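Q: Please design a sequence for this.
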């Protein structure tokens, strides 16, 4: 079965489960998520995770909102027992609350970034808040709750948080000079660029510019919504062959009937599919889903799940060593 056929098969299964009330672009991105991770969609298991999550969430909780399919999918692909997966996730959310962090869409997403080892939570929460504070040194008003998921992921990585925040600021300023529009998406892009190294790299921004210009040259949209995914391509140091594969995959799936009205959703999925056999498979999967979701949901709510991707990749890498 081809990738295009697997996408259509998974999309149809998801559509049957989610119903017609869920926007098609969300269903498309979820289909890309499962296919990229080479996970078979199991309707009964998905519904079981969904049921447990709804039982644990209040009737007005974000966990029951339009983001519900996203939370269910990320817990589903973990492979853990549905009830145990939901219970552990809710414990993570409670840990955030007890730390004094107000729960909303962004902080619930941040909970997905936390490790499964409870003894690590105190450290992770402290480092998250430290990075947030360091980021506010440069972008006091731009840095807000929508940055918590990235801060959760990046804060616990190796390197000084103050150095990482300074590097983000340098990248942000440089990107502006290359006609990237200022705002939340650009801030997230500058954060993404520190994924592989908290210290400033001379060629990082130039790499991002080359990628953007290359995509534009083949008529692939590079609006602000795509900034974080461009950032990940640069941070992961994709070579010319890998970038060409992203373009080829994009053109292949964007030409199908499934994407006829939603070509914007094809790029992030193509990115994930092109890297699915690499060590960044988990990273690219959630990045692709996030960027797709961002096209229909509030950008601040959706794009953050991309960091969950990197978390999964790190775990997969350490497990294979």
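A: Design:
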């Amino acid at each position: 079965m081809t990738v295009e056929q697997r996408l259509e098969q998974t999309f149809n299964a998801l559509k049957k489960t989610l119903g017609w009330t869920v926007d098609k672009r969300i269903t498309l991105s979820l289909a890309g998520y499962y296919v990229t991770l080479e996970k078979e969609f199991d309707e009964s298991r998905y519904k079981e995770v969904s049921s447990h999550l709804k039982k644990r969430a209040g009737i007005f909780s974000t966990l029951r909102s339009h983001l519900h399919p996203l939370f269910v999918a990320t817990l589903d692909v973990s492979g853990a027992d549905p009830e145990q997966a939901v219970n552990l996730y809710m414990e993570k959310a409670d840990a955030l609350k007890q730390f004094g962090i107000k729960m909303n869409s962004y902080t619930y997403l941040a909970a997905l970034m936390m490790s499964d080892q409870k003894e690590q939570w105190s450290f992770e929460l402290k480092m998250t808040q430290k990075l947030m504070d360091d980021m506010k040194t440069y972008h006091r008003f731009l840095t807000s709750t929508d940055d918590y998921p990235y801060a959760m992921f990046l804060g616990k990585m190796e390197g000084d948080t103050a150095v990482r925040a300074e590097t983000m600021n340098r990248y942000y300023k440089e990107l502006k000079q290359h006609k990237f529009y200022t705002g939340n998406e650009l801030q997230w892009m500058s954060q993404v660029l520190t994924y592989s190294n908290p210290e400033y790299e001379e060629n990082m921004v130039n790499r991002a510019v080359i990628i953007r210009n290359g995509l534009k040259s083949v008529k692939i949209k590079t609006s602000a919504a795509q900034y974080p995914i461009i950032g990940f391509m640069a941070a992961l140091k994709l070579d010319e062959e890998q970038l060409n594969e992203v373009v080829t995959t994009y053109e292949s799936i964007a030409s199908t009937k499934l994407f006829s009205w939603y070509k914007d959703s094809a790029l992030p999925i193509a990115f994930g599919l092109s890297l699915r056999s690499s060590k960044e498979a988990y990273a690219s999967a959630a990045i692709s889903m996030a960027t797709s979701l961002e096209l229909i949901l509030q950008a601040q709510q959706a794009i953050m799940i991309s960091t969950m991707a990197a978390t999964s990749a790190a775990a997969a890498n350490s497990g294979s060593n």
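Q: Thanks. Anything notable?
A: The longest helix spans residues 82-98. The chain is about 65% helix and 0% strand.
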